[in-house]
């Protein structure tokens, strides 16, 4: 004997019912079948709606019933095309709708819909569908006995969620089996009857349960639950696009997953088949050849120990706190008794070992009643200050890891907390049973999508990690960066498992935002010009409100206000990657604050390109200091622009022209005066000194500018005009050095806690002398490199190299 159950979508139309008939015919070749069906999809909701409308005195219930009747008659006509075949079923359907109309009229007249009447009303859905399916079999020449589940399944009289009397049910089923010769039964799911013969129901989704009860009573060889997905999935597919079917799962795991949101299976279904040791398949009516999920006693362990993820929303935490409960037995018992009296279901329980508080999770809809009954129960303790009034928190959800094998794998919860922590998902409460089969976390409902995706990637997707980039400032560097990202996307997916998506690109005039899947990096420039403007605050709000996992803000501007956005973003665990030097060279307290925020919120603030573009300067310095070395002295050429200018200026071309060339080649700051006046280099040595451990401010960096003051008095145009005016000054500087066989270098120095920048004449043989083009060099003198310095040298400016340094920081942030 095998029991097959088909859900509402599987029997929603004549076309779908044809599929059901084919699947059942196929199964019948293996042995007798009990077929359990739900109501035609949407019927139960429509019946409830009609009942509620009637009770409220709203005559719309009549139209609803007419529509339902028409739908069932249409299905009958399609399934039983010949008039003779319809001879029985059509009058029967009409009679049922006449009964239904009378029942609804009664509800309308009384203005009342009791749970018992509602069960009766709802039962018509499954009665109609099961009769229709049985008639369709008969019309195809297959004898199908219609089995009235109300005569097979005995329950108590808890209408809406009746409890089954297993012994009586088994006896009734056995008796029916003895009297029924047919090898195919068709039975309505969901419905049963109490000892008085009143129709009861087994809870929404109860048709699965009906099938399991019948399977257990019959000692069936297997139970198949046919639905519209190919088995239980690793996560809710509406939340996780890459969720995939679980091939094999234990009863206990299936129970945990179905409890916590896997709508594919009604949770009570598992118990009867588990007890009877009956294997249960979950299969897809619309893809019958898919493997589905086999629920069994001992499935092979899942490779990553976690079998699936589940989530339930609309949760509230109830916190009962107070010194009065420490060491006093009975508080928990009174709390749970009070909740039970109010029929409030407790979903999750945690208590700290200090016994100072108990926290329970309940449905949000139960909060008001819980507050009332608990505060009543503990009124005495609250009045004397031994307990605080119950403190409910709403807007929460549970996300849980489920897996039988987790108990054999240390470190699962560490990975869970780490993954959520890196993404700024705050865990409000946790619960793990001693079985270690379920680790439940309570988080903000708004974080569920992000959390469940992060965890799915962590535990199921060895292949890809999605990283979401928000790029501000697609200018010289930003434009190159987007080009490099575009070119490398396939490599990153294949080799690093990173699915890098650019979610938004903004400049000061436009902001282009992607819907799903990230922007097309081949076509962003044209699209950006058509996009609306967003202010910086709005851009930050967009990043925060999108609440995407592994979000990274990439600041490729030179804008001080952009730097002002880092703190709120880091505080939401959004990583910040910046080539903009403003933040790291702003007030020391603010620089420290940003670094601390990154630590506190488990994220990254990376700015390697602030010094020497893509050269590994800050990284090297970090390696030295983290390993215990002490930086005593630094000597460096840190301006690509100035090195280029002094390498290319010999008086044969005007100084202004060489500076303009540096700007055209993309070495200068957006405002080249910052390079020429030494500010850019001052920022860089300040950042290096800070990274070496010195709490310096910009005012502590001595800057001996070589520019005549008038060069900085106007705008950039005036600046170039003044450079031309002062050509003799620049020529004199050059001649003075060249006359001694020396070269001009703008040098940054740090020693003994003091930093300075200025133009120097460098003699041949000096470490800074041979420095070509736009190169940078940094000499680190440390306790471990006292005389022969550690040298980092190479191209220190240019959009392409800087973009590659930003890219490298993005990868670091993405891999955390
Ligand atoms: N060029 C180089 O060799 C290096 C540059 N950097 C840094 O890279 C940064 C960018 O330099 P470039 O690309 O040359 O500058 P750019 O002027 O070409 O690009 C800056 C971009 O930022 C945008 N922007 C400015 N203010 C904005 C705002 N409030 N909101 C949105 N977008 C805004 C502009 O529209 C532009 O798209 C600078 O901070 C610079 O210090 C760092 C290392 C080396
Ligand atoms: N303008 C800078 C670019 C890198 O920070 C320079 O010239 O070095």
Structure description:
Helix content is about 40%, strand content about 20%. With about 800 residues, it is of the alpha/beta class. An eight-stranded mixed β-sheet has the order 3-4-2-1-7-9-10-8, with helices on both faces. Strands 12-13-11-14-16-15 form a six-stranded antiparallel β-sheet. A six-stranded mixed β-sheet has the order 19-18-17-20-21-22, sandwiched between helices. A hairpin with a 5-residue loop joins strand 12 (about 345-350) and strand 13 (about 355-365). The radius of gyration is 36 Å and the shape is elongated. The mean pLDDT is about 95. Bound molecules: 1,4-dihydronicotinamide adenine dinucleotide (NAI) and ligand LTNE7NMQ. 1,4-dihydronicotinamide adenine dinucleotide binds next to helix 15, helix 18 and helix 28.
SSE diagram, text form:
Blueprint: E1 2-6, H1 14-28, E2 33-37, H2 43-55, H3 60-79, H4 83-110, H5 115-139, E3 145-146, H6 166-179, E4 184-188, E5 191-193, E6 199-201, H7 206-218, E7 222-227, E8 248-250, H8 251-259, H9 270-276, E9 280-284, E10 293-296, E11 308-321, H10 331-341, E12 346-351, E13 357-363, H11 367-377, H12 379-383, E14 391-402, H13 412-422, E15 429-432, E16 438-444, H14 448-460, E17 465-472, H15 476-496, E18 498-506, E19 511-513, H16 524-530, H17 536-546, E20 551-555, H18 560-563, H19 566-570, E21 575-578, H20 588-600, E22 605-606, H21 617-626, E23 631-637, H22 640-648, H23 655-664, H24 673-676, H25 679-691, E24 701-704, H26 716-725, H27 727-739, E25 743-751, E26 754-762, E27 775-782, E28 790-795, H28 799-815
Parallel strand pairs: 1-2, 1-7, 2-4, 3-4, 7-9, 8-10, 17-18, 17-20, 20-21, 21-22, 24-26
Antiparallel strand pairs: 5-6, 9-10, 11-13, 11-14, 12-13, 14-16, 15-16, 18-19, 23-25, 23-27, 25-26, 27-28
Helix pairs in contact: 1-3, 2-3, 2-4, 2-5, 3-4, 3-5, 4-5, 6-7, 7-9, 8-9, 10-11, 13-14, 15-28, 22-23, 23-26
This protein binds 1,4-dihydronicotinamide adenine dinucleotide and ligand LTNE7NMQ.
């Amino acid at each position: 004997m095998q029991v097959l159950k088909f859900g509402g979508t599987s029997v929603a139309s004549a076309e779908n019912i044809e599929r059901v008939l084919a699947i059942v015919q196929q199964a019948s070749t293996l042995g007798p079948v009990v077929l359990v069906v739900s109501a035609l999809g949407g019927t139960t909701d429509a019946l409830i709606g009609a009942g509620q409308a009637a009770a409220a005195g709203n005559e719309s219930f009549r139209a609803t019933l007419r529509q339902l009747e028409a739908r069932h008659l249409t299905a009958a006509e399609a399934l039983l095309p010949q008039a003779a075949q319809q001879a029985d079923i059509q009058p029967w359907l009409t009679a049922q709708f006449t009964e239904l109309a009378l029942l609804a009229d009664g509800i309308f007249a009384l203005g009342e819909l009791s749970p018992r009447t509602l069960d009766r009303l709802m039962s018509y859905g499954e009665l109609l569908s099961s009769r229709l399916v049985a008639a369709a079999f008969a019309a195809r020449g297959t004898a199908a006995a219609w089995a009235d589940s109300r005569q097979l399944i005995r329950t108590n009289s808890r209408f809406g969620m009746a409890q089954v009397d297993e012994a009586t049910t088994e006896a009734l089923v056995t008796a029916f089996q003895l009297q029924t010769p047919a090898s195919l039964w068709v039975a309505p799911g969901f419905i049963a009857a109490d000892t008085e013969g009143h129709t009861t129901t087994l809870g929404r989704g109860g048709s699965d349960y009906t099938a399991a009860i019948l399977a257990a009573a019959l000692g069936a060889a297997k139970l198949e639950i046919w639905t519209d997905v190919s088995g239980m999935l690793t996560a809710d597919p509406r939340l996780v696009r890459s969720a995939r079917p679980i091939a094999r799962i234990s009863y206990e795991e299936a129970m945990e997953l179905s409890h916590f949101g896997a709508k594919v299976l009604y949770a009570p279904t598992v118990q009867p088949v588990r007890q009877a040791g009956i294997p249960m398949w979950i299969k897809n009516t619309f893809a019958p050849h898919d493997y589905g999920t086999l629920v069994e006693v001992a499935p092979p362990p899942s490779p990553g120990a976690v079998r699936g993820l589940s989530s339930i929303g609309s949760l509230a935490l109830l916190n009962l706190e107070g010194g009065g409960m420490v060491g006093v037995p009975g508080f928990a018992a009174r709390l749970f008794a009070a909740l039970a009296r109010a029929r409030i279901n407790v979903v999750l329980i945690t208590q700290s070992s200090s016994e100072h508080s108990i926290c329970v999770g309940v449905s949000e809809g139960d909060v008001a009643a819980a507050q009332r009954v608990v505060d009543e129960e503990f009124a005495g303790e609250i009045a004397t200050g031994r307990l605080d009034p119950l403190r409910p928190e709403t807007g929460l959800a549970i996300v849980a890891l489920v897996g039988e094998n987790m108990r054999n794998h240390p470190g699962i919860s560490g990975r869970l907390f780490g993954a959520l922590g890196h993404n700024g998902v705050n865990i409000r409460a946790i619960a793990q049973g001693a079985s270690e089969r379920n680790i439940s976390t309570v988080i903000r409902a708004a974080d569920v999508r992000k959390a469940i995706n992060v965890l799915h990637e962590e535990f199921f997707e060895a292949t890809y990690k999605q990283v979401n980039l928000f790029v501000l400032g697609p200018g010289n560097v930003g434009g190159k960066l987007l080009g490099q990202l575009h070119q490398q996307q396939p490599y990153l997916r294949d080799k690093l498992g990173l699915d890098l998506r650019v979610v938004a690109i903004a400049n000061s005039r436009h902001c282009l935002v992607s819907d799903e899947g990230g922007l097309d990096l081949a076509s962003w420039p044209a699209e950006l010009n058509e996009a609306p403007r967003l202010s910086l605050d709005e851009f930050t709000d967009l990043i925060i409100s999108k609440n995407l996992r592994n979000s990274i803000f990439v600041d490729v501007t030179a804008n001080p206000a952009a730097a002002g956005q880092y703190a709120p973003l880091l505080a939401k665990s959004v990583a910040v990657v910046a080539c903009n030097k403003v933040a790291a060279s702003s007030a020391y307290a603010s620089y420290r604050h940003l670094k601390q925020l990154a630590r506190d919120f488990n994220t990254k603030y990376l700015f390697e390109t602030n010094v020497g573009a893509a050269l590994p300067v800050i990284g090297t310095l970090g390696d030295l200091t983290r390993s215990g070395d002490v930086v005593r002295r630094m000597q460096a050429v840190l301006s690509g622009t100035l090195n280029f200018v002094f390498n290319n200026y010999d008086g044969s071309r005007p100084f202004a022209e060489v500076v303009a060339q540096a700007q055209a080649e993309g070495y200068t700051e957006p405002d080249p005066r910052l390079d020429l006046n030494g500010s850019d280099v001052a920022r860089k040595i300040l950042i290096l000194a800070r990274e070496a451990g010195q709490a310096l401010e910009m005012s502590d960096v001595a800057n001996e500018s070589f520019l005549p003051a008038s060069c900085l008095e106007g705008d950039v145009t005036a600046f170039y005009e003044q450079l031309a005016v002062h050509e003799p000054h620049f020529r004199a500087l050059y001649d003075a050095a060249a006359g001694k066989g020396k070269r001009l270098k703008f040098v940054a120095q740090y020693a003994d806690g003091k930093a300075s920048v200025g133009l120097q004449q460098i003699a041949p043989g000096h470490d800074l002398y041979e420095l070509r083009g736009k190169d940078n060099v940094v000499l680190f003198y440390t306790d471990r490199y006292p005389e022969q310095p550690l040298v980092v040298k190479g191209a220190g400016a240019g959009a392409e190299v800087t973009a590659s340094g930003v890219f490298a920081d993005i990868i670091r942030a993405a891999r955390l």
